[in-house]
Amino acid sequence: MLVMTMKRLQMNLTFLGYDTGGIDGIKGAKTKNSIRQYRISRGLGDSEIADQKMIDCIRNEIMEIQRKIGATADGVAGNETIAKKAEYDKKGESYSWDNVKHFKKSEFSCKCGCGLNNIDLNLVKILDEIREHYNKPLVITSGCRCANHNAKVGGVQGSRHVLGKASDIYVQGISTKDLLNYTTSLVNSGKLRYTYTNNANMTGAVHVDVI
User: Fold this and answer.
1) Count of other CB atoms within 10 angstroms of residue 189
2) Where are the domains of the chain?
3) Considering only CA atoms, which of 205, 86, 71 is closest in space to residue 138?
4) What is the rounded average pLDDT of the residues 40-47?
5) For domain 97-209, is the CATH number 3.30.1380.10?
6) The whole model's pTM is what?
């Protein structure tokens, strides 16, 4: 069983964009709310308790990021991880809404109306590239999903839609086969992690996701 101190938990939550009210080792109101929001967004239940499932989930998530940015994969977003992330961003791997050409953030919000929108801007960058490649409108049929909506639409547990790292898309005037061939080439080049389609359930849309 892996143990995580409250300070380390606060470090990880803060690194992922949650407001814990500070990294002081005290489980105050803001830290409790951050735990609750994290758990809900990852399908771990509505609770203020950081149980073993949450500890394992957040540790694995941080480790995945650490491997991507070249930091020691120890599951704790400490000074090294923060510095490596800053270096990674300076190299142009990050993205901001200021230079998104073809999409609005609202297009990626959870379809259930809960307001969840944790879309990964590196994915948006790739979608911009796909849109530029075809020079045709690209439509987001499914972006971010809260755990409840993900379950309702038949998404797998731990879906990358819940993490904000996936979208289902189609390009107007482009066949599913052609789009899938192109997104597969992006997987092979390392820009995307995975792509697939299931015409029966996705009505011709193509799933794309990033690390």
Assistant:
1) 8
2) 6-93, 97-209
3) 205
4) 85
5) yes
6) 0.61
Q: CA nearest 59: which of 103, 18, 4, 97?
A: 4
- 30 HSE (CA, 13 A, CB side): 13
Nearest to 42 by CA among 193, 169, 144: 144
Task: Kindly tell me the number of DSSP H helices and DSSP E strands found in the chain.
Answer: 8, 4
Tell me the per-residue pLDDT of 181-208, one tens digit each, with 9 for 90 and over: 999 999 998 889 999 998 667 888 999 9
Q: What tokens appear for 157 in the block?
A: 């547990």
What is the distance between the alpha carbons of residues 178 and 191, in angstroms, rounded to a whole number?
Answer: 18
pLDDT at 78: 94
Three-state secondary structure along 97-115?
HHHCCCCCHHHHCCCCCCC
Query: Quick one: tokens of 29?
Result: 């109101």
How far CA 128 is from CA of 18, 122, 125, 139, 169, in Å, comes to: 27, 10, 5, 11, 12
pLDDT at 95: 64
Task: Count other Cβ atoms within 10 Å, centred on residue 123.
Answer: 24
For 147-193, the pLDDT digits (tens) are: 899 999 988 877 899 999 999 999 999 999 999 999 999 999 888 99
